[in-house]
Each structure stands twice: as structure tokens, then as C-alpha cells.
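Here is an idea for our session: we take a single protein and study its fold together. Start from the sequence, derive the C-alpha cells from it, and show both lines together. Once you have written the record down, we can walk along the chain together:
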Amino acid sequence: MDALSDDQRYGITLIAFVGSVFSPYYAWARRRGSSDPMAHCALNVALYGGLRRWAMTERGSGACQRDRDCFQIGPSLVRCSDQGLHWQINELANPLPRPLIGEVSVAMGKGWRPDVFSLSADGAHRWGPLNPRARIQVHFDRPRLSWQGWAYVDANEGDEPIEQGFSDWDWSRAHLPDHSTAVLYDVRSTRSKVQAPTVLALRFADGQAPQAFAPGKRQSLGKSLWGIERHSFHDDKQTARLHKNLEDTPFYNRSVIRSSVLGHEVLAMHETLDARRFARPWVQSLLPWRMPRVA
């Protein structure tokens, strides 16, 4: 889930992981023949704006519980109800160990979309846009922060490590003036001899089936500070350009871009993942420092 405040000053990303795809501990366990995903859960919290914080502490199975309506991850909890999603957050930021304590509510109601799309030819990696546009309320006691805005909620799942299925991808989502949402997935597989990407360009509106649209022209957004190549699409009205950088790591970049989608000038959330870089030993050796584990 990600969101921007109504005044565009603040943003948030919340990701609840079962069998964290970015966990070095999960990778080590798989190599030893033990691969219980519930033994490797984490809540990723990222705050953007004036009060920037980032946390992703992995928890063992003894500290995690999951059922139809709740997901307990250590001291944090994700709960779904007829009103939507509610997050109770109690984490410790990294690298500076500062408390992250707050609540986030996403007013999804019962409007959970059932759509599931394959991101790979063999169907081993899947994505579902649970609710592409919903109101969000963010309130943190530590740090002191409150705002409202529009959120995007989705889910991903896979049957194999992410670096086995993909070399890299670019993803973006934009809320359009008619209250619909445009999502672009530009995925390159490790199994393709010719790096022909899989491109999904879909528009989601309440009460309607997903509508495919022409993504437009693919263009470079330049390299990140860590040298990751970033790309996006634009139609004939305006080229895409970087508006604000939110996260920059050796294998992952998240930013806000300005672009033109379906004839509308928009601010879009954008991410680039370089799975080849992620798999390199020097990157793997850095992960435990950024993602500590509490068994």
C-alpha cells in the first residue's frame, strides 16, 4: 500500500510480508532446506516528507499470527473489516533506532477487487490490485504526524524467489481526475533470451471491469543515485520526468514522477526494482544491516 497526502507534502508505504522476498534470512533458510514463510514475516514502514522514517524488522513464527481478518507481526497488527484496512504500527526505525508508533486506516469498505494478473509467462508471479483508490487517514504519535489523502492498495505473491523470475521491472500508478486509477507494469523476465518486456497497462474504475489501454512511449527517467536504470511511459501530451525521489537503495528506487497518462497530466507513484543487482553478493551482505531480525 502507498499513499500521498492531499497537499502532496507527505507520503507513506506499508507492506506486510509473509515470506519476505527481500529477506537474506529467508534465502539462507531455503538453502538449508527450511522454507516456512511464516518464519520470515516483516512490516515495511516508510514515511516520506519532512519526517522521514524507514523500518523493516523481520519476525519469526513465534511472534506472528495470521487468520482471515488479522495479521500480527510482532508488536504491529494489520486488520481488515467491513470498513477497510487498519494498521496498528509499533516498529523501530533503521538505521537510526527511533520509534515508529501510529495508526493508519484505509477506507476500502467491501470494495476489494477480485482481479489477479500474471506477471510472468508461467504464472509463477501474480499481482492483484485490491483497491486502486481509497481514502486514507494517517496518525502517528512518534513521530508526531497526521494527514489524509488517497491510497493505492495491492498485493503480490510468487512461487519462487523474485530474482529467479525477473531481471528488473518498472511500475507506476496514477490517480486520474475521473477517480479512476491507471497502473503500468513493465516487467522483464530472466527466462527470456530476448529481453522483450511484459507490459500491463490497465485502468481501474469503481464498478467496472479493468480496461487495457495503450501505454504510450517508453522513455528513460535517468539513473538513480545507485546507478539503477529507471523507465516509464508517456503519451503524446507530455514526457515523464522525476518530481521527487522517495527511496534510493542499491537495488530499489521509489519516486514520484510527473507524466501524461490517458491525456491527463498526473503525479504518479513510481518504482524500479533491479533483481539482478539484488542477487549480487555485495548487496546481500548489506541487507541484514538494513533489515534486522528478531526471532
Observations:
- The chain has two domains: 1-160, 161-288.
- The radius of gyration is 18 Å.
- The first strand starts at residue 2 and ends at 5.
- The helical segments are 24-31, 162-165, 275-278, 281-290.
